[in-house]
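Notes from hallway chat w/ T.B., transcribed later so I don't forget. T.B. wanted the structure written out for a chain they're using in a teaching module, and asked if we could keep both sequence and structure tokens in one place. Agreed to drop them here.
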Amino acid sequence: MDLKFDAIFYYVSDLDRSIQFYRDLLEFKLHSQDLVARFYIGNVLFELVPISGQSKLQGNGNARLCLKVDDIQSSISELRAKGVAIQDAEKKANGFLSAFSDPDGNEVCLWQYTS
């Protein structure tokens, strides 16, 4: 078996609202859109997949999008200025971690390495 990485995706209830969140607040560049919206984070394909109803939303999984940052305090301040409810950074063994949610409750984290 020759497995290759394809994509990470989040289910969303409102594609336009989610595109606005990731494009305008997190400044991800929208690569393409048809039935789904596609962004690249570095070389990683990140997709937003719309669904109807709440069957796959709000805590039915444990996926987390974790974004590496160089200055977590500055990133937290910038997101708060844009109205994002983001947690204070927590000290971890090898860095700092903060988290917030997208409009559908999908978890997004910021991570700053200290070593």
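Follow-up for T.B.: The CA atoms of residues 63 and 107 lie 7 Å apart. Might be a good example for the class.
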